Amino acid sequence: MKLLFVHSNEMRYELTSKTQYAEPVNGHQKKADLGECLVVYVCAEKGDEENTELAVKGGIREIEEIYSRLDPERIVLVPYAHLSSDLASPSIALEILQKMEKRLKDYETLRIPFGWYKRFKTENKGHPLSTLSRTVEVEAQERPRTRVAKGGVCKTSIRRFDSDRGLHIYNSLTKQKELFLPQEDNKVGMYVCGVTVYDNCHVGHARAYVTFDIIRRYLEYRGYSVFYVQNFTDIDDKIIERAKEENRDIKEIAERFTDEYFEHMDKLRIKKASVYPKATQHIKEMITIIQGLLDKGYAYNANGNIFFEVSKFKDYGKLSGRTVTGSPGVTQVEADSGKRSPADFALWKSSKDGEPAWDSPWGPGRPGWHIECSAMSMKYLGKTLDIHGGGQDLIFPHHENEIAQSESYSEQPFVKYWLHNGFVTIEDEKMSKSLGNVFTLKDIFKDHSPENLRFLFLTAHYRSPMDFGIGKLKETKTGLDKIYNLIEKIKLIIDRSSANAFGERQQTEEEKSLIEKIQKAKAEFEAAMDDDFNTPLALGSIFDLVRDTNTFIKNAVDGKEEKVDSAATEVLNRVLIVLGELMELLGLPVVPTDTTDRASQHLTSIMEILTEVRNTARAKKNWEISDKIRSDLDSLGIVLEDHREGTTWKWK
What we know:
By secondary structure, the chain is α/β, with parallel strands linked by helices. The protein is about 45% helix and about 15% strand. The strands form seven sheets. Strands 2-1-4-5-6-7 form a six-stranded mixed beta sheet. A four-stranded parallel beta sheet has the order 13-12-18-19. It has a four-stranded antiparallel beta sheet with strand order 14-15-16-17. Strand 1 and strand 2 form a beta hairpin. Helix 13 packs across helix 14 (about 470-495) and helix 16 (about 535-555) packs antiparallel against helix 17. The protein starts with a strand and ends with a strand.
């Protein structure tokens, strides 16, 4: 293998497959270990077009020479830049691609950064990038990170494409982290198992849907178009039982708790799914799949009950690790239903008195739980899903059964990446109604803000178990308040700043240092999220920025009599922008909701005082004070209206 480094001043070096480090170039070293592929590093600094053109021409000649001596499996284009420059321009890579189009067609895979791919499509419309090779794998662009090695040599490390580079997620199916590559360019089909709408939403539900909301947000941040499907199970034994207890219609129960679900998820700032299919609206699709499984011999009819025969699916257990061997015998109840093996599961249940039923080729009945998700996910996302998510408690039997019935029916892999969030425990015990330790969102939100709960979830990796308690909510609020306090502090500084306090001047070393720390914080945030959505590490980068900014304010702003000038406020405004962007990625509001609520309450109280003062002035015929209150409030957009019953106010 040969590696070619192309730089704007024509400096380059080569590596052989036996070499781990190149000779220093301008004091920098680059580590490379990429397997059998040709790797082209491209760098172009702004304002250096002439040298860049020379570098490209020289680089192409050298690349063509390497081609004649190599037969790599794939080509990798890596953006690289000096620490002080912007990332390499995609136009340079495009020029290389265009001049080498014929040669590139001979290689199996071409990998390029996703950011480049988007700009190719917009800046070079009509360019047949997808025809350059049989497979174009689109990677995410990553900024180099620096560290000082022993001896003071500065190294710039770029993570490897084949193992470390790009977004990696833990696949519950393979039990390892994998490079995320969706089936279709930059589109992602994502299905998450929704709630069974028979009871109040609790903290376990909140953790699951916050987890996949963050995953969805970060995928979109990286440029993916995400079609997110989340179902509602609105027919189930539990719903039927709840309806009987309350002597209500099943539909009424389902709609009530569906509405409550949306109310709480909106408070948690969870983005709406692309579609929310309901089980009762997809009976036709379920019947089609069940009939297909019967026709292929994977299912059997037992007096109107249709069961999936697990022993017929040879890969059963590949997700959960459980097998059907050694299972206990069939109970009398199961035998009466016609079930042959305890591992077999219901696809269709024959109707019982007083229960809802739908017509089917096997008689009236209703679907089993597992078939619902297979039918709804495949309808909206196709036979193979990019991502299927849910809680760890769903791995067996629900997701295992989904795989069995879906792959038996479609004869294709059901899901490429399985993602599961960890359990929520209460004082180290599993949350359950039988133990009486269930925390509903309705109760939590009485005394605690939704963003505080969301922030608590972020402090643990989504795959890890989380021990929940009110005490932990209070502890994490302290951390969240540090971010909000800084945001408020910066806004106050900017409000009292003077754009012309000192006129034009150069940035101070402290200002330059903070700018570098802003860039570092964002890069480290992205690197953490690229590592299986590691939100605790991502939060660490935010708190580093908060600490560094507070230090900057203490040293460069606090205690100064003169107003802060535009150069300093520009740097602080950059902090605000980055904090806002990263908090939005995590689904956290920039202004806390409890602050907004308190402000609203205070405004109401203040207006009551003002109207009382004005009414007193009017009673004493002090029209000057009365009119001034009305006029000043009107300038603020508040209208006072006098009625026989008293005075009211409203916004214009």
